[in-house]
Amino acid sequence: MSFVRMIFFYFCIYSFLGWIIEGLFNLSTRGKFIKPNFLILPLKPMYGIAAVLLIILKDLVPFWLFLIGCFIVPSFVEYLTAYLLFHSFHLKYWDYSKLPYNLSGYVCLRFSIYWVFLSLALVYVVHPFISLFYTQIAWFWSYFFPIMLLLFFMDFCLTIRNNRHLHI
After folding, report:
1. Among 64, 132, 141, 146, which one is most buried in terms of CB atoms within 10 A?
2. What's the mean per-residue pLDDT of the chain?
């Protein structure tokens, strides 16, 4: 159970950091902090999922294979997220169709290369601090974990219910 708590902690932290990164990206490119969010909570689960997968992958494969994973994992998670959002709810939060080497407008080579550098920074620079932080607050998280899990589950269910009319 402690492994699940730890992984969910990382998922929440990196989903929140993804929300911040997207907000700052919008601020720098559009001049305002836009919150196009599927969930009510300030979380972008695709960032959390990709981060957790990369953190696990790092210790399982040689570096050269991990480097390839830094390209494939976030790109696949981004593609799957965009595909599911569009085909389930007719929501399209990003569109790379005007950029070269894109796949259905869901992913493109330029951003996949960005993911490699962000993934390396995440795993080798950010994650050691987050991991250390987790060891310091694991006792607290063990109490907060069920609350956060319930909040995330309720948010997800409410969001699905509220967006049902869009396509489901």
Report:
1. 141
2. 93
What one-character-per-residue DSSP string does 35-102 give? ---SSSSS--HHHHHHHHHHHHHHTTS-HHHHHHHHHHHHHHHHHHHHHHHHHHH---S---TTSSSE
Q: What is the pLDDT of residues 26-51, one digit of tens each?
A: 889 888 877 667 888 999 999 999 99
List beta partners, residue 107.
103
Tell me the sheet residues that pair with 102.
Answer: 108
Distance CA 73, CA 57 (A): 10
* Torsion 151-153-156-160 (CA) sign: negative
Question: Using an 8 Å Cβ cutoff, are 118 and 53 in contact?
Answer: no
